[in-house]
Structure prediction request, 864 residues.
Amino acid sequence: DGDKDQVAAETEATFKDHRRIGLQQELYMINEHTPGSIFLLPHGTRIYNRLLLFIRAQMKQFRFDEVVSPIIYKRALWNTSGHWDKYKEEMFEVKGRSEADSEQYGLKPMNCPGHCLIYRHIDRSYRDLPIRYADFSPLHRNESTTTITGLTRVRRFHQDDGHIFCRVDQISVEIQQALKLIDEVYKVFDVPSYRLLLSTRPEQYIGSLEDWDRAESALREALDFSAHDWKLNEGDGAFYGPKIDILLKDQNGKEHQAATIQLDFQLPQRFDLKYRGEDDSTEHRPVMIHRAVFGSLERFLAILMEQTQGNWPLWISPRQVLVLPITDQHAAYAEKAQSILSGLPLGAPTRLLDSNAETFFVDVDDRSETLGKRMREGIQKGYTYLAVIGDKEVESGTISLKKAKGGKKSKQMTFTLEEARKFLEDEVAQYH
Amino acid sequence: DGDKDQVAAETEATFKDHRRIGLQQELYMINEHTPGSIFLLPHGTRIYNRLLLFIRAQMKQFRFDEVVSPIIYKRALWNTSGHWDKYKEEMFEVKGRSEADSEQYGLKPMNCPGHCLIYRHIDRSYRDLPIRYADFSPLHRNESTTTITGLTRVRRFHQDDGHIFCRVDQISVEIQQALKLIDEVYKVFDVPSYRLLLSTRPEQYIGSLEDWDRAESALREALDFSAHDWKLNEGDGAFYGPKIDILLKDQNGKEHQAATIQLDFQLPQRFDLKYRGEDDSTEHRPVMIHRAVFGSLERFLAILMEQTQGNWPLWISPRQVLVLPITDQHAAYAEKAQSILSGLPLGAPTRLLDSNAETFFVDVDDRSETLGKRMREGIQKGYTYLAVIGDKEVESGTISLKKAKGGKKSKQMTFTLEEARKFLEDEVAQYH
Ligand SMILES: [Zn+2]
Ligand SMILES: [Zn+2]
Prediction:
């Protein structure tokens, strides 16, 4: 145990930034062939997929419909949306490679124009609204190579993106729901605190004064309803609509923009989006709300990494249990424990797995290294639980789980294998 | 019921191709701004996500590690891989839009080179092999606009892509596992039959004769082990390795290439991939196996659409139950039924949903149209079960489920709401 304490002291002494944790736990890599595009390695992908699974479940109850939209669109679309000029050098251009192929495409920096095309695909009635689309497509922005770094300034990223098309009278409820979702999600991730800022109509604006007034009062109403402190940034909204900034403070006091809520009077106008009203006129214009909870998944991952310092809560941990047989004699039992705890059969699969089957990431380290070295490496890699297997365990058919980062006083719990599995399930169920 | 029978007769009379089903059930759309790139609409996305969830579960037990790899790579990478010249006009080129930004990128047509970079990222030992990566990234191929159509010839698509890096002595077991997975998956989707074809060394080839001989005999061994008929295509392999074609026959007798297994001696050489052997030499070269089970998810979706004719088995159905209150008086009970069957709370969510919570896609159609019209439209949209709610149901607290496409003789089953929910769970559990 001396080894373990030493490591604990070493690794807890200093704050580690996400790049260091990413390297230590092999979560992601970068490569000179594609600056700013992150390769999520197997363990990083596990966390990423867990975040997606979690947010997708919430999208079901918050009645967002996920869509999978294209990644390249002709220049004409970006002219309509205004991005071709506005985004200029931040947007990548795509072309066919034959002489004859003169079509210019843009690699999408955001999903909104694609979602406008989906909205416009069929006629919409006031009864269909609000229409809510979710999308987890990869987005590309040509940031300068001098500013790209780690997971926070990248060129390719993914958002838990959402667009709501609604009537002006629906804005308040939609924003209330968005604020509620953000609040609930941040609680799950133990975000210590966040600030809400309302930015209102600037001097230059599009849309009618009446719509702005109604939208702003809907936002105020929703903010008041949230029972969360908020502040006013008068006149600081975008020219195309008011917005709410959600500024998250991490456990080191650093502020990050993760979630956003942005109203938009412009895109519905540029794309000539309409709906048939109760008055039977088809000339009604919906409002568009852009919103994200995590924001950039890559950036949110970085925030989580720094906040947890790589000590992942069990439910999101990419390495949940490390089983350590003391000698070769304990290896067979260690594998049995791995199989029961993980929920995956030993050896070659004999049947297909149920899609919803709960499985755990359980590894065995049976290398011929000292137990101390294997424990130390397991702790450094970020395993949540360690389970040493010796004579006692084999003879009594038990397993002892101990939090890898629990420190000296962390209690060790002894279970049968089935009880241990149940214990893991229960701990995960407390989160998600 | 007269209405219903008429519709059944109309819709069953003729074979519908996937484009017609896609339109009728609003599964996907296309748009002139991005020819060949499919927009999966909400209901198409539900099927697509279900396929991903299903195959991801299998990847866990077949020990594939999912990664998320970048989408654009500098030209230099495609020179190394050979794609820049070989793929020429099939590959999209990507560039920054500022004058100063002269870097040429290629939009990836396949994941293999990216996976080679991940392999090469750290030193590998014979003990680490096989290394298996799964990836569901979007891929782009610049097919001519004259050939693109529906979901089968597209420019942007997704594969359930996998690459195995292994030693020559591991090929046979890896291929056996791949064939087993393909066979099990095809059973789940009721694929009536498929053919296996082994293509062997052509006149022009790279790699050593010894490696080819060992690889081919490993493939033969795996094919024999599969207990499935297979045929030899002598000399028809690619110059860089032998392959197994899996030709799936749909219920209309049409053959499709879905799954593939391709050995590759070339990319490991081009990327100078190595591993440290038992002899401690670092000069060993792994073999690479490209394999996919569904192949293109878009194409597999088209095959499923045509095979089922849009009558989705419950587990994959994007519209599982349609609840039809006869009059307004039955609307409140219909909503209660929707909530219990779907597993989603009525109205605004009050708590976060468990990520693994099983939910069902249950809609209520309470428009003031005749019951006949609503049933007909429900059948056309592809609902799996219809549940008409009248006085009897409200009074007895029951619900009757009837297969929408079961025809006249299909039995109607009456349950309490909780029993009905359990019935749906059980039916899904029979598949996945
Ligand atoms: Zn947006
Ligand atoms: Zn490949």
Notes: The radius of gyration of chain B is 25 Å. DSSP finds 14 helices and 19 strands in chain B. The mean pLDDT of chain B is 92. The longest strand of chain B covers residues 156-166.
